């Protein structure tokens, strides 16, 4: 029942730079087509923050990709395999403090990841914590079925990073993430969710590379069929609004984009906890990996 902001996993590709640069010579190499925001992480109840109290959300993720796409959407002719598995605990405090007609919400989350990649004959795997996210937001309840939340996260470069490695747990730069989410929740009717996230990325001090500003939209649409069940579909839309920059100079053909769609299901109990699952397939990928993801999300009152 929570979206106090966002971020459940660090990017699935925070560090394919040197190998991709040699393999395809494109700006896809420098940041690996990844992002500080995990596309499609949010689903049902994205904008519905629960009443004041302490809550624990758990996100599970399994991502697999075997294709790299360039700026035209063509497959890059290199052998490529990527697997990311993770669990992210997310602590949320929905405070009783009134603010702007709603209530203040605070959160912290830290992804725990296992990443394995093979690119152009080189391979590497790594496991551990990713980048820490801290955030604050204001939640509103406009009616029994309509809810929204707005706020911002800061993603701190706490995950391990080495520019010479094939894969990394962190991105080695700070990202500010303004977010807004809205949810329509009906146990026996239309359920619809939309969350918008803007990534304002800092510069990687090791590579002197800055990923351009990115916009993400996570969505879900379905119908409450009774007994706590909602059935439908969901996914994401991602677009990059600015070119990347290397040493302050704009990098041509560096913008990433993608979208996804897939089946989604939610089960919620009368006691206030729920579990949601979604499978999504990447489509329309530019300058990044193309694969599929299984997401699982649950929330428990503490």
Helix content: under 10%
| Quaternary class | single chain
**Structurally, how many domains make up the residues?**
1
Q: How do the strands of the widest beta sheet line up side by side? A: 1-2-3-6-7-8-9-12-13-16-17-18
Q: Which architecture would the CATH scheme give at its second level?
A: Beta Barrel
Q: What is the number of helical segments per DSSP (H or I, 4+ residues)? A: 2
Mean pLDDT: 88
Order of helices and strands: HHEEEEEEEEEEEEEEEEEE
Signal peptide: 1-29
InterPro entries: FApF
Pfam families: Phenol_MetA_deg
Organism: Aquincola tertiaricarbonis
Describe the model:
The protein has 302 residues and is mainly beta. The protein has a single domain, classed as Lipocalin (Beta Barrel). 4% of the residues lie in helices and 58% in strands. The chain contains 2 helices and 18 strands. The protein has a 12-stranded antiparallel beta barrel with strand order 1-2-3-6-7-8-9-12-13-16-17-18. A 4-stranded antiparallel sheet has the order 10-11-14-15, with no helix packed on it. Strand 12 and strand 13 form a beta hairpin. Mean pLDDT is 88; it is low at 1-30. Pfam families: Phenol_MetA_deg (PF13557). Residues 1-29 form the signal peptide. This is Transporter. Keywords: Signal.
């Amino acid at each position: 029942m929570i979206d106090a902001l966002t971020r459940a996993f660090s990017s699935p590709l925070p560090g394919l730079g040197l190998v991709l640069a040699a393999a395809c010579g494109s700006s896809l190499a420098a940041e690996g087509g990844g992002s500080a925001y995990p596309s499609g992480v949010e689903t049902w109840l994205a904008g519905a923050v629960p009443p004041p109290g302490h809550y624990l959300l758990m996100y599970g993720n399994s991502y697999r990709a075997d294709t790299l796409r360039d700026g035209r959407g063509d497959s890059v002719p290199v052998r490529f395999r990527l697997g990311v598995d993770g669990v992210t605990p997310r602590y949320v405090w929905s405070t009783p403090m009134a603010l702007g007609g709603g209530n203040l919400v605070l959160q912290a989350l830290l992804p725990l990841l296992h990443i394995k990649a093979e690119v152009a004959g080189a391979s590497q795997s790594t496991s551990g914590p990713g980048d820490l996210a801290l955030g604050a937001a204001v939640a509103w309840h406009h009616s029994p079925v309509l809810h929204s939340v707005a706020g911002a996260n800061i993603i701190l470069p706490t995950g391990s990073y080495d520019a010479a490695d094939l894969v990394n747990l962190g991105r080695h730069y700070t990202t500010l993430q303004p977010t807004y989410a809205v949810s329509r929740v009906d146990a026996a009717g239309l359920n619809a969710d939309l969350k918008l996230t803007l990534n304002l990325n800092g510069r990687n001090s090791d590579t002197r590379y800055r990923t351009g500003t990115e916009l993400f939209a996570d969505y879900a649409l379905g119908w409450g069929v009774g007994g706590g069940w909602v059935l439908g579909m969901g996914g994401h839309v991602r677009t990059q609004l600015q070119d990347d920059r290397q040493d302050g100079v704009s990098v041509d053909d560096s913008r990433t984009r993608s979208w996804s769609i897939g089946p989604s299901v939610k089960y919620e109990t009368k006691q206030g906890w729920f579990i949601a699952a979604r499978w999504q397939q990447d489509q329309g990928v530019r300058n990044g990996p193309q694969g599929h993801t299984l997401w699982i999300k649950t929330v428990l009152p503490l």
